[in-house]
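Lab meeting, item 3. Inverse folding demo.
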């Protein structure tokens, strides 16, 4: 038996990278999953791979209409909604002095507004199901800053605050809300950052207590735990999956 047997989940940014691993892991644990993205080609391919346990929807997380449609898809086709993984996110690697306001605003809209809208829109369906779980994907940059990532870091700090406020507001409805903080995970997005920054990613991660890049599925295991009944007394928490990156300086 899987730890998510009988549950229905909604995953954003699920077409590739870490989001796709969340979808695969949740299905492997027995869940049925609606997942959304803007990458329709990759999304439909993943849906074809996984079959009737999933449904793909085109989903702009900054759109109230798209959020309503995604939640409706879960309830209409699978009968309920038990978990939401707010995974969709973007970054721009640009120093503050060179960053356009429009780029800063875009990052904040997707990462922060998208997460907030997800909680707001899904909460009634989660409550109707008797309660559920929201997993907000933040980052280690939600605890520390990084040069060139001012907008991304600001957005990931904000997700921590939204998570704690939502946990306070929604607990009486049986809805748990936690944040998940990946470190250096081998995904297309982190590969792009390494290239843009000129940082030797392999060399940096070799200095960690767990001296390697993390794999997306290692984050997905924690997301599945938080969505499951095994995490029934966890809310407002911050769950770090970073190979020890935040333990301190490497000396």
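The presenter then showed the designed sequence:
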């Amino acid at each position: 038996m899987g730890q998510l047997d009988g549950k229905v989940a909604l995953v954003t940014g699920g077409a590739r990278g870490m989001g796709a691993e969340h979808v695969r892991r949740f299905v492997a644990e027995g869940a049925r999953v609606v997942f959304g993205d803007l990458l329709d080609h990759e999304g439909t391919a993943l849906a074809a791979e996984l079959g009737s346990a999933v449904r793909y929807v085109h989903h702009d997380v900054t759109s109230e209409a798209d959020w309503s449609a995604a939640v409706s898809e879960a309830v209409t086709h699978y009968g309920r909604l038990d978990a939401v993984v707010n995974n969709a996110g973007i970054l721009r690697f640009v120093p503050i002095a060179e960053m356009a306001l429009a780029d800063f605003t875009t990052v904040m809209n997707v990462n922060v507004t998208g997460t907030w809208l997800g909680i707001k829109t899904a909460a009634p369906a989660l409550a109707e199901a008797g309660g559920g779980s929201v997993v907000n994907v933040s980052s280690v940059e939600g605890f520390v800053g990084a040069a060139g990532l001012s907008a991304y870091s600001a957005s990931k700090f904000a997700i921590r605050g939204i998570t704690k406020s939502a946990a306070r507001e929604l607990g009486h409805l049986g809805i748990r809300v936690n944040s998940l903080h990946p470190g250096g995970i081998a995904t297309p997005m982190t590969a792009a950052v390494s290239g843009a920054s000129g940082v030797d990613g392999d060399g940096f991660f070799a200095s960690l207590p767990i001296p390697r890049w993390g794999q997306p599925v290692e984050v997905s295991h924690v997301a599945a735990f938080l969505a499951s009944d095994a995490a029934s007394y966890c809310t407002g928490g911050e769950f770090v999956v970073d190979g020890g990156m935040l333990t301190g300086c490497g000396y």
